[in-house]
Amino acid sequence: MASDGTHTQTIDFMKWHGAGNDFVMIDSRGHDAVVTRDLAARLGDRNRGVGFDQLAEIRSSDAADIDLDFWNADGSRAGACGNATRCVARFILDATGKSTLTIRTARGILEARTDGDQVSVNMGVPQLDWKAVPLSHKTDTAHLPLDGDPVAVGMGNPHCVFFVDDVDAVDVADIGPRIEHNPLFPEATNVEFAEIRARDEIRMRVWERGTGITLACGSGACATAVAAHQRGLTDKRVRMELDGGWLTLDWRDDGVWMTGPTAFVYRGQLTPAFLKGL
């Protein structure tokens, strides 16, 4: 691992995914953080780097078991990433033999735990006030003044949830970026399209801020579950099918718990030649 800030050495990394939502994970505990905007963007390039939906850098913590920083594929920072949090939790829990873990993120301190062969994380209490999402001006977050009557929910990052009759008929690649950069969202937004199948089942597709279409989005799944219950469409506990697999969401008094699979794909090493251009 490069430790002198010059990137003349190598950087070890791991590739994981949760329900198809894929991540690069860098363990920087015990030394300074190594990820920069430029490194995240180059590493996120699926042709010239490794490719990921988000990058998670694990750091030592004085307030929790670990600290986590998140980056999008375009090099921008991400305030929350639920599936990456679950993958990091699986990595740490397997290494330590523990069954629970505390993780400090920009969202606050989150709790994760093993749940059989899956991992659960409490993504925190949803942010439903317009300032907290955040939105650019005061408005009803349950009924945004946009075509399609979407819902705004904050989960440490902003989300805009649309309810549709047929989610597979939605042109996510066209609508997603236009909503992502709508002036109503001063920090841009993630965009979810949800089809209600039953009181306890949702089908969802997502456009992620700073990344684009992904197979799954943990914080987006949480936001969608919250929005659906707010509208009276579902119960507080639902199963959700995303393009990459299934997650379970449970909105409790202490926050939204998300449970799902994790997969460790491979270990790798960034070479001095790759790092030299940063």
Please supply descriptive tags for the structure shown above.
single chain, 278 residues, alpha+beta, 38% strand
Protein topology:
Blueprint: E1 11-18, E2 21-27, H1 37-44, E3 54-59, E4 66-72, E5 77-78, H2 82-96, E6 100-105, E7 108-115, E8 118-122, E9 151-154, E10 158-163, H3 172-180, E11 190-198, E12 201-208, E13 212-214, H4 218-230, E14 237-242, E15 245-252, E16 255-260, E17 263-270, H5 272-276
Provide an overview of this structure.
- This protein has a 17-stranded mixed sheet that branches.
- It is globular.
- 18% of the residues lie in helices and 38% in strands.
- The N terminus is likely disordered.
- It has 278 residues and is of the alpha+beta class.
- The protein has 5 helices and 17 strands.
In short:
The chain contains five helices and 17 strands. By secondary structure, it is α+β, with helices and mostly antiparallel strands. It has a 17-stranded mixed β-sheet that branches.
